[in-house]
Amino acid sequence: MPHKAVLSNGVPVYIIKGGAQDVLRIDLLVRGGYSIQECPLQALFTNRMLREGTSDYKAEEISRLLDYYGAWIEMYSLQECNRITLYTLGRYLEPMLDLLESMVKRPLFPSHNLETIRANNKAFYHINSRKVDVVAQRHFEKAIWGENHPLGHIVCAQDYDAITEELLRKYHSLHYGSQSMAFFISGSVDDKCVAAIEKRFGEAWGCNECADMTVAPPVSTSGASKVTIDGVLQSGIRVGRMVMDTSHPDFHRFRFLTVILGGYFGSRLMSNIRERNGYTYHIEAEIDAYGSRNAFMISTEADNEYVKPLLIEVEKELKRLRDEDIPKEELELVRDYTLGELSREYEGVLPKAEVFISLWLSGQPFEAVNEYLDTVCSVSQGELRSLAQEYLRPEDMSQIVVGA
Predict the structure, then answer these.
(1) Strand partners, 218
(2) Does residue 365 share a domain with residue 229?
(3) Do residues 26 and 88 lie in contact, with contact meaning Cβ atoms separated by under 8 Å?
């Protein structure tokens, strides 16, 4: 389990030690993300622009410093947080933390850089708007959250044009501060590492009041809908619904049921729809996490002519889980597979950090890794069938098809 330290200003620092190499990964998480933004793309552009110039460094200097020290920074904007991940050698931690502090505390959001980032992102938006899998995901989130929800809004070209420096500065001033941050440090961590973070981030800074982090509840819809993109040869397909929160007692059992249905190469959906019928190259079932809330989703792409028979077979597999107990041999096979996957996830210190960050973001205690392990080993055929009867009814699901 991670060891927890606390900076003088109350910011939590979760430490995961391990690895023989002098490598550190520092994840800085800012609560909020795009679930609480004032307008579309505000959170994403705010986080992305942090490396485009500060009061201490120009964008070119930031890139040059990262290259010189062999470091790497990744920027993410997620539903529940904005995230900055720094990879560096331990011996270069001090200059890299100086850079990170300047990016987070003193960004300038220069207008000429914003125009470049806007143009690049807008170009990718137009490219992705012809990709059936991307468009299907956008419309699925609209269906499960509601059109007027920040997580259900489908971004359009005008949203890129509406982003201004003032909007980015406003989001930064409201959400980037010691009251809304947490650190995860993994790798060859020592006391000097925590002291170096304390030196740069240990004082109270940013907005003195916690911003409102309340996320509106989903307004789920069910039923089938079709989105047409002329000239495409394949269709993107999403089938699913909102399910229980991570704190629900059924969550870990339902997560395991999802593996049986479509969570590995020999799953029921793959065996039927890919291997037996040849309707698609890949199909999977998964749980999409939106903070503590979760959506069940089946996703695939198929030739337009195979969409209807594919959806019929999906319903057949859902019905089998509702009507029949899972054979013991299959249950034991999936148990063994899942235990192997868990072992792989926890094999190294950096992958382990990703697991604990995901738990933290979803509001689960770190001990949930053991709860899921216990569930995998003990869940029964009857429990899984009852879950399927409650949560896997097609009439409760949204069905999105994007194609010609």
Answers:
(1) none
(2) yes
(3) yes
Handedness of CA 48, 49, 55, 56 (dihedral sign): positive
Give, as one character, the DSSP assignment of residue 185: E
Cα(100)–Cα(185) distance, rounded to whole angstroms?
Answer: 14
Same domain? 151 vs 229: no
The candidate with the shortest Cα–Cα distance to 402, out of 46, 100, 134, 127, is: 134
pLDDT at 269: 97
- State residue 212's pLDDT score: 58
CATH number of the domain at 303, please.
3.30.830.10
Contact (Cβ atoms closer than 8 angstroms) between residue 240 and residue 144: yes
In a domain, 213, yes or no: no
Six-digit token string for 306 = 């195979």
Closest among 297, 326, 330, 321 to 387, alpha carbons compared:
321
Where helices occur in 163-303 by DSSP H, the ranges are 165-175, 191-201, 251-262, 268-269
**β-bridge pairing 234-242 and 398-403:** antiparallel
- Determine the Cα–Cα distance for residues 70 and 92; give it in Å rounded to an integer: 9
Q: What is the Cα–Cα distance from 284 to 317, expressed in whole angstroms? A: 12
CA distance 189 to 26: 10
User: What is the per-residue pLDDT for 208?
Assistant: 59
Same domain, 328 and 362: yes
DSSP code at position 270: I
Weakly modelled stretches of the chain, pLDDT under 70:
208-215
Helix (H) or strand (E) holding 134: helix 132-145
Yes or no: say if 241 and 144 are a contact pair by the CB < 8 Å rule: yes
Cα–Cα nearest to 257, from 397, 65, 391, 106 = 391
Task: Look at the alpha carbons of 287, 402, 218, 33 in this order and tell me if their dihedral is positive or negative.
Answer: positive
CB 99 within 8 A of CB 53: no
Specify if 208 maps to a domain: no
Q: Hey, which bits of 253-391 come out as E strands?
A: 283-290, 293-303
The string of pLDDT tens digits covering residues 267-301 is 999 999 999 999 999 999 999 988 889 999 999 99
Residues 244, 175, single domain; the answer is no
Q: Does any domain span residue 216?
A: no
Can you give the residue range of the structural domain that contains 72? Answer: 3-201
Q: How many domains does the chain have?
A: 2
Is residue 235 located within the same domain as residue 178?
A: no
Report how far apart the first and last C-alpha atoms of the chain are (Å, whole number).
49
210 within domain boundaries: no
